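[Solved] Which block belongs to which protein?

Original post:
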Amino acid sequence: QVVLAASIVSKSGKVLVSRQFVDMSRIRIEGLLAAFPKLVGTGKQHTYIETENVRYVYQPMEALYLLLVTNKQSNILEDLTTLRLLSKLVPEYSYSLEEEDICQHAFELIFAFDEVISLGHKENVTIAQVKQYCEMESHEEKLHKLVMQSKINETKDVMKRKASEIDKSKIEKNRGDKGGFGPLQSMGSGKIENSFSDLSISSSGTGFGSGSGFGLSSDVDSFSTKSKGRPTSSATAPPKGLGMKLGKSQRTNQFLESLKAEGEVILEDVQPKLGVSQAAALPPSDPITLTVEEKLNVTLKQDGGISNFDVQGTLSLQILDKEDGHIQVQVQTGENQAILFKTHPNMNKELFANENILGLKDLNRPFPTGQAGGSEGVGLLRWRMQSNDESMVPLTINCWPSSSGNETYVSIEYEASSMFDLRNVVISVPLPALREAPSVRQIDGEWRYDSRNSFLEWSILLIDNSNRSGSMEFVVPQAESSAFFPISVRFTATDTFSDLKVTNIIPLKGGNPPKHSQRTQLITENYQVV
């Protein structure tokens, strides 16, 4: 058996990870992997393909293919055994079988492949052994890091001592230049000013005559003197042309105002308030956070009807403390029969199908903690819903352009379903190139014109039972009705189509259930009227 390469490719032919175990040029492996999607047929029971030179042994994994490229003389039974082992390893390192997650854990997958296959031949290892080999710590590496850290700390100490010595030498030099006996003339009513503070030492009005033999004391030596006639720190205004002038000039302000008028967003320099950025970076307060998120993709026709309606939802879990990882999650699904649920490959599918409980197949294995799987947590459950029923659309848009003389009157109306209360609704209408902003005659909400990108934004903060419908009317110079399409819409909601709720957290090691919180949101990913 000789395995030439182990790869993970998408069904469109995009190579995500590929590890070659024999000497092979990049052109050849790219050619072999590029030819694979063209050879895969539909409706076939077997999962191998033979060509004149190589054999492809593959296994579908959701939207991906796990692929072994071998020579034709290899034992296909051993190849299938190797493929099964690799298919069990991939979910161990990439919790969700998506392209982004596979690319993020590419090196961990390559290291795992190297433990399974050596020089094209399968090693006699198990999944537990592969994980142990990949996670094995090196005592020599720890010792090397400790030695390097001690050297860095020692270098920092030396640097501080040298900096202190340089500062002292500069002070001694200033004392030698300014602290000797000599004539000090014209010092009456002058000031010896401290460059490090606002303190000042002023002499009496009699002054010191020539040859008075006055020597600066050690307390005064540390201050730098300023010559007579130079403005002091209490001066009301600096001389013209000297120093730095803080703030923005009038010309700069005019330029920024012109950019704002064109629709550009100008970020002002604002001093951050204490605690604002820290509060935004704080982790979730509850030990366990479950997030229900649905993404809505809708394409409506401008003359009525719906051409695409797709909802994709995920339930993700985020655990802060490792001790809370041994749990199961009990959920309650809504009554929508059109939704198809799909659990993660590591979840116990029968447990979810019979009791609506999400738990790992291996009860001794805890859920990942911290930021494993990304900032949104670890995906437990997915679902999808597709429909052609227009009553399922949360927000419909009707646009009626009509020309009269040299002007075009555009009336837009929205109608919201009673299923959801929509928040932060923004309806973006493209416009033809205009010299000035359109004339808005009537609007329920607020509007903004972006002259650079040439579109009009209609914003409604909240759509609830008090404003399920609304309209806007504006006038522009004469234009074709197609110039006002496609209209894009974005909004959020705190309810979902699935109506999925987390009812209980079941600790597997006994004790009280840990405290948890649930976040639910519906967001638009691609919502258009074309």
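(Second protein starts here: sequence line, then its structure tokens.)
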Amino acid sequence: MSLQMVSTVSNSSLLQPGFSLLNFDGHVFFFGQKGWPKRSCPTGVFLLDIKQNELKMKPVFFSKDSCYLPPLRYPALCTLRSNARADEYQYIIHGGKTPNNDLSDKIYFISLVSKTSKKMTFQCIEKDLGGDVPEARYGHSINVVHSRGKSMSVLFGGRSYTPLAQRTTETWNSVVDCLPSVFLIDFEFGCCTSYMLPELQDGLSFHVSIARDDTIYILGGHSLQNNTRSPNLYKLKIDLPLGSPAVTCTILPGGISVSSAIVTQVSDNEFVLVGGYHSENQKRLACNTIVLEDGKIEIVESVGPEWTPDIKHCRMWFGCDMGKGSVLLGIPGANKQIIPDANYFYILRCKGAEEDKEEELITQTCSQTSSEDPGDSTPFEDSEEFCFSAEANSFDADDADTYNEDDEEDESETGYWITCCASCNIDINTWVPFYSTELNKPAMILCSSGTGHWVHAQCMDLSETMLLRLSEANVKYFCNKHVDLNKGLQTPQKVACLKKPPMKPLRKKKTMKLSTSAKKSFLRRLFE
């Protein structure tokens, strides 16, 4: 194994724990940025361009018929093929956290529809499901199994927020393990079915799952209820006959007590397990080789790389599978850096030196799922601070298209955690819900003064009744600072104008002209 540092040229602060990577045709795309997408890249999906050990990010476009895809962190993600040997595939994305810490229960299909040297276009479609639909969650896994010529997706594990009926002020934003149910999802008919298996007693999250044909192996994971990392190795077998599916679970020996590990595929039936945690504050620096052959799994310890002192002594790390036996690793940067959120990144190559030289001759690196066998792995994080995802490669594109985060507005001045007024005391680290309608973020209301600005309802001393009334009524609101300036400045109601009939013009009187004899006769009669 070899370890090489990668320098980030720009916008590395977007690469934060919880992101995912998509690999299409050897090109790697970043998804799940920190914060909401901005105008420089409204899709929130970027091409990762790694050339000469430098990492750049370039915006990606969506087709006109695509739906909106929020930047989800810690989602479940895997590839979906029409059959086990198909070359074309698309990605399934389920669940995850939004930048507002809301949990998603939606499922998306994303595929590459066009590719040029300067522009990549994706299509994103939201799928509607019926039946036993999985609740919103994060830190779970999703895999695709193939049996008897049919395919189904299998969803397991994860965490969600405490149910509303069980919440208190102190535990309002607390998370719990999801029930250890196994969900079978048939995308052809859009239906879900859940199964409770006696072998699965505790909920797991941030575990590793590897799928091969009709079998899924689940390794490690963290249980919040027991605060343990499971040493069990579970084997899920899914049979898809003409009738109802059959799901069985077997507990195998030889498991590893680990969470947040990364799996990368190095050959047709061989995988390498790296990273993870023995406990909350203890990283797992050991590596293991996983071999799947003849319906069996074998896990043996392998020689790891020479870790750098920075990696050895850091408290946390995060990263993602890059495909072809390579892993992208990240560790927090020093506090003295100019960019406070910047991280250091490394590429770990798990193959031998000769195999690495052979790969250098290939212009495009294949993804882990593009080999002959569709065995895919889904790694997850065990903490809010970490995440491992999927693949990366270099791409010759015009550097003028590189995304520049410096062109964007400061995120600290927008969103729910702004300083809305001089007396604002809303802090993301200490905030607790104040209104019954709040969950993960404070209620806000728009002040109509000038161009308008948002303020926290709690800072304006609004009662819950008044807040509901203002949200339902179509009226203007002015904050405490601008209310005096706008008193009486209400738009007058429109008054219907009275229709007045047009005035008739005065008629001119007609005059008669008399002859001289007539005038004399008139005067004679007047004086007689």
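Accepted answer:
You had them paired correctly. Confirming on the second one: The radius of gyration is 34 Å.
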